UniProtKB/TrEMBL annotation:
Coiled coil: none annotated. InterPro entries: Cro/C1-type_HTH, Lambda_DNA-bd_dom_sf, MLTR_LBD. Residues 36-83 form the HTH cro/C1-type domain. This is Transcriptional regulator with XRE-family HTH domain. It comes from Catenuloplanes atrovinosus. GO terms for molecular function: DNA binding.
């Protein structure tokens, strides 16, 4: 990962999405040679010189102060997640990143027992590259019934949630609004690459998806950053039909790069009944 170019590309992408009217600037005529705001306009809104801002985009100015970055974030109307991402990229820009082979990951101690103790709740554990490190039977049946239930036990061939969303027809068909899910996956992967700039496995995953999936390449170019938290999805499951579920993603305290993902449905709803049917069908 070239951190300097990543910072510049992020700033350029966020500047390009803004129009003069979005930030209260007058618009003169209909023709602009560049999409979005000009560098000079963004610099004026942020209260910095146009030359300094240009050097930031070009990766020539390092160690921008927190105050300057916050001013730029405010001018760009960045979300809280995008603002944090900007700070992460800036903090790395002045440091040499040494590529390192990805370490073999295993689910944190106690998580397999936790998954087994909640058979009625589809759940899985993911690692620093969105690899599935473990899942319970209900989680396997909901997301990947077409794969062996033992798939996470083999580090070299583990399922990867990002890869599944873009390259696996079963997973793609699972989401009614696939585009929204895809954007969330890309936004999370974008944040992962900034937090782990030397992870060659993560870089290889991004490269693979960009080559194999035009949709991924299109969304990756938008530089969207999306935090994992709680979200509602409408699913079309091949065994139990349509259901609406809430996905919660929790950070594992003893292994901050790992996440526990749980799926629930509103009590008494047809979706809750569908999850019960799925659990019974998979013997959970």
């Amino acid at each position: 990962m070239d951190v300097r170019s990543s910072l510049g590309e992020f700033l350029q992408a966020k500047r390009a999405r803004l129009r003069p009217g979005d930030v209260g600037l007058p618009r003169y005529g209909d023709r602009r040679r560049v999409p979005g705001l000009r560098r000079e306009e963004l610099a004026m809104l942020a209260g910095v010189s146009a030359g300094y801002y240009a050097r930031l985009e070009q990766g020539l100015s390092l160690h921008a102060s927190r105050e300057v970055l916050d001013a730029i974030a405010g001018a760009m109307r960045l979300t809280a997640a995008e603002r944090e991402h900007l700070h992460v990229l800036s903090s790395l820009a002045g440091h040499r990143v040494n590529p390192a082979p990805p370490p073999t990951e295993h689910a944190a101690a106690g998580l397999n027992a936790l998954l087994a103790a909640m058979p009625g709740v589809p759940a899985l554990v993911t690692g620093r590259r969105n690899d599935v490190l473990a899942w319970n039977r209900a989680g396997h049946a909901l997301f990947a019934g077409h794969l062996p239930v033992t798939a996470p036990d083999h580090p070299d061939t583990r399922p990867n949630l990002s890869r599944m969303v873009f390259l696996d027809a079963h997973t793609r068909g699972l989401y009614r609004d696939w585009e929204r899910k895809a954007r969330a996956v890309v936004g999370n992967l974008r944040a992962m690459t900034a937090r782990n700039p030397g992870d060659t496995g993560l870089a290889a995953l991004v490269g693979e998806l960009a080559i194999e999936s035009p949709d991924f390449a299109r969304l990756w170019a938008e530089h969207t950053v999306t935090p994992c938290g709680s979200d509602v999805y409408e699913l079309a499951h091949p065994l139990v039909g349509d259901l609406t579920v809430t996905q919660n993603t929790l950070t594992v305290t003893q292994e901050p790069h790992q996440s526990l993902i749980t799926i629930t449905a509103e009590a008494g709803s047809s979706s809750a009944a569908a999850l019960t049917m799925l659990r019974q069908a998979c013997g959970g």
